[in-house]
Design a protein that fits this description.
The protein has helices at residues 17-26, 29-33, 35-41, 45-73, 77-88, 97-127, 136-147, 153-171, 175-204, 207-214, 224-236, 244-251, 258-283, 295-307, 313-347, 351-372, 386-413, 416-423, 428-463, 469-473. By secondary structure, the protein is mostly helical. The longest helix has 36 residues, at 428-463.
Length: 528
Amino acid sequence: MLRKYQTSIGSFTRKSTFFWASVGATVGLANLWQFPYLASIHGGGLFILLYLACLLIVTLPLMVTEAVIGRHARHGIVLAMDGMVKNAGCSPFWRLAGPLSILAAFVVLSFTAVFGGIVLAYIFFGATDRFEGASAASATAVLSELVSDPGHYRQFMAWHVFFMALVVAVSARGVVKGLERSMRMIVPCTLLLMLVLFGLAAMRGSLQSGIDHVLVMRPEQVTAASIKAAFFHAFYTLGLGMGVWAIFGAYSTSHTRLKRSILAVVLMDTLFAIMAGLMMFSVAADGSSLEGERGFSLLFVSLPVALSGLPYSQVVIASVFLLVVLIVWATGLSLLEPVVGWFREWTGAPRGWSAVIVGLAVWFAGLASLFSFNLWADYRIGGATVFRWLELVAGGIVIPAVAILIATFAGWCITRRFAATILGNAPVVFRRIWFWVMRLVLPVVAAWIGLQYTLFSLGNLCDNGSAAIWCQEAPASTEAQDGAPEDSQVQEDVPPQTPEEAVLPAENGQPEPDENTPKEGDILYHSV
């Protein structure tokens, strides 16, 4: 058995695979259920420019750092940080970034797989015309029956198992035959399908409505809350803090240009989000049926209702959710990879067994989130379900902590000469910007984002009637909103703060959907 630091975890065979795999990791559900909403209420094209600025100034340096750490060590994030901390002669405290990254990837994947099961079911629902002539109430009832009805939890579990089987089946085949081949197929197919659906939306819908909501610049809508929303979206939607970039950097070929590839990935991710927004608002009548919608409410209620009025709606709805399945599948593969890589380096187990064991553990952990919507919905700790605590711990604590540890270690512990060696052939301007961002900017920004996320999440529980001790000391959310305008748009930057009112009321005498149906605030912002 190979000893520590001698474990071979695999490598890509083509330099372009890093790009395709990274696009698969970054293009997630947030591109569909969050970005269009944010752009529509925060100035359209001006918000996109703010978002790009946040990406280039803050997020991009951290992405490059994680990737080059993995590439330099040729290991996953745990052994990579372990080796770098020893080489730099720094405190072992900084090694925490590795285990925390694996923990974050594991937790986020556990409920990403639950979402994947829902999306798989919706392909079937669309193909069998469950949404023919659908209203908001009937579409919500479909979601409620699948997700929150205790009598149907076994069906929900079956879709969950199906999705995890898709992810594990690919991972078990290895880095080249499994991950590389799949990403080189899944991601281009995803982009091609998006182009087809975008073309359909442009021909059958109102493309001008999409442009008005997403691209037209509206300076009057840009506020301090817009800048906050841009920072949050840039930080939480690119797979940072979960070891994904480190493992892909370790797999990259020696002639892959990491910095150029990462920049291309960021731009592709933004372009995909823009196209998704244009497509969604184009198919809705004047965009009005999707205004103010995001999260579960947008993807699983409003969007099927909007698409049900199109010709051949069965095919269209099934195709849209096939697109979403491909997106979540690629995300699941990306999140599983750092955990499988760590497990192999820790135990020396074969690739196939490692993928199966980790996959089973992820599936089992995902049951806690799955049952939070139905069987365990009434069992709450501090006013929140197990799922809400998992998303709070991962999004508000663990991921920001990893970002702070990596940035502070890179900015203060390693020498500039060693940093230059790691970064490789980079312009002097880039090195200087990287150095000061790592040293001063990113730790402060990550700490602020994590604190805001946590405060908003806890405040949201108080708004929903929690009797937790922090609610008694600091009642409601006005202090946590940090000066944001007191209107309906104050909820844009962190989903956990959204009041649980996304489930639409019953119409035409139909029974009201179960109160445990997922709400807008029941999603992890960067999830997926």
